[in-house]
Design goal:
Order of helices and strands of chain B: HHHHHHHHHHH
Low-confidence stretches of chain B: 1-13, 20-43
Distance between the termini of chain B: 37 Å
Strand content of chain A: under 5%
Order of helices and strands of chain A: HH
CATH topology of the largest domain in chain B: Four Helix Bundle (Hemerythrin (Met), subunit A)
Largest sheet of chain A: none
Mean pLDDT of chain B: 82
Number of strands of chain B: 0
Oligomer: heterodimer
Number of helices of chain A: 2
Largest interface: A-B, 26 and 35 residues
Distance between the termini of chain A: 65 Å
Number of domains of chain B: 2
CATH architecture of the largest domain in chain B: Up-down Bundle
Number of strands of chain A: 0
Structural class of chain B: mainly alpha
Mean pLDDT of chain A: 88
Largest sheet of chain B: none
Shape of chain A: rod-shaped
Chain lengths: ~50, ~290
């Protein structure tokens, strides 16, 4: 296990690469979905206001 | 209404059958027979044209997004397993070569995303179709994120391999220019209020910047550089063993499916936000 995490002494470069990629892509997906949901909610509100 | 549709369903085909001459637009007959039968032109072009209709596009996009995301997730799990466990360490670089599995897919997507913007912008400029502009705009932020990831992971790979995080060589510099092109492209969309004018200006920047894409690709051949040459898309076939190639391809396709899903979600947001803006404007006009 430790051997795997140590990545042959290159852990300081390998793990940040994977972590930063995961965080950035995760944030991109989450924010894109959040924006879509917000637009849908706002449209629904406007539709309700209509007589 | 329901009765009307019922009688329409009994539309008589006999005269056409008797004459042996079916109407050229066969679909129209069926529309009269039952409006619920949606008739598409059987050509790919026809289907693409159908998708250019924003309403139909929304239906297609919401149906396709979960498939893109599921495909991306599956390929990502397989790719990560391959990258971290199944693939061997590089015989020269050791385990730091595993950075390749997040670096190369991001770098490919950085270029593919920009190429996508260029193609969509050209279609938008020539055919003046707003959906093409929406597609181009929606690819910009994901493309910029993947370009930044390519630079960051490349930097983290460069330190243990070359002994430095950054060098001003042709490959690294041209990818940095690509990031600036993405940022400039997004800045134009933000700066110009009127959407059609913003789309035109942004499209022109995208087309001018397109010259950078082949420069990035050939930079490792044209100039001496620390960056290694192409190892997958070579004329004599990939120069890496299958045990390293399959995780790389799996990660690359995962990133591409994810990109497609994200772009579809963002295009839907763009269309809904535009609808929201027009509704608000019309409400404002109605107000006393």
């Amino acid at each position: 296990m430790w051997e795997f995490l140590a990545m042959g002494g290159k852990a300081a470069y390998v793990w940040p690469s994977f972590l930063i990629s995961a965080v950035a892509i995760g944030a991109l997906v989450a924010w894109s979905y959040h924006r879509l949901r917000r637009a849908k909610e706002m449209l629904a509100l406007l539709e309700e206001d209509k007589p | 209404m329901g009765g009307g549709r019922g009688t329409a369903r009994q539309y008589d085909l006999t005269p056409h059958l008797a004459s042996g001459q079916f109407p050229h637009r066969f679909g129209c007959v069926f529309k009269k027979v039952d409006q619920r039968i949606v008739t598409h032109a059987p050509t790919v072009l026809g289907q693409l044209h159908g998708l250019a209709n924003p309403h139909r596009f929304m239906g297609f996009a919401s149906a396709a997004t979960p498939w893109c995301m599921a495909l991306a997730g599956t390929l990502l799990i397989a790719g990560l397993y391959g990258a971290l466990f199944a693939a061997p360490a590089d015989y020269q670089q050791g385990d730091s070569a595993r950075i390749m599995y997040v670096h190369v897919p991001a770098a490919w997507l950085a270029m593919a995303g920009y190429s996508g913007i260029v193609i969509a912008s050209a279609i938008g400029l020539i055919f003046k179709h707003p959906l093409a502009d929406t597609a181009a705009k929606s690819m910009a932020l994901p493309g910029a994120v993947f370009t930044a990831l390519a630079l960051i992971t490349g930097s983290l790979w460069g330190k243990p391999t070359w002994g430095t995080f950054w060098v001003w060589d042709a490959r690294l510099t041209s990818v940095l220019v690509l990031l600036f092109l993405y940022v400039g492209y997004m800045a134009i969309w933000e700066a110009i209020e009127e959407p059609t004018r913003a789309a035109r200006a942004a499209a022109i920047l995208a087309l001018v910047g397109a010259v950078n894409v082949p420069i990035i690709h050939y930079s490792v051949e044209w100039w001496s550089t620390l960056h290694q040459g192409t190892s997958v898309l070579r004329k004599d076939g990939p120069s890496m063993p299958w045990s390293m190639l399959w995780p790389l391809l799996s990660m690359a396709f995962a990133y591409q499916a994810l990109f497609a899903g994200i772009v579809l979600v963002r295009m839907r947001s763009e269309i809904l936000e535009r609808r929201l803006r027009t509704r608000r404007l019309s409400l404002g006009e109605e107000a006393p």
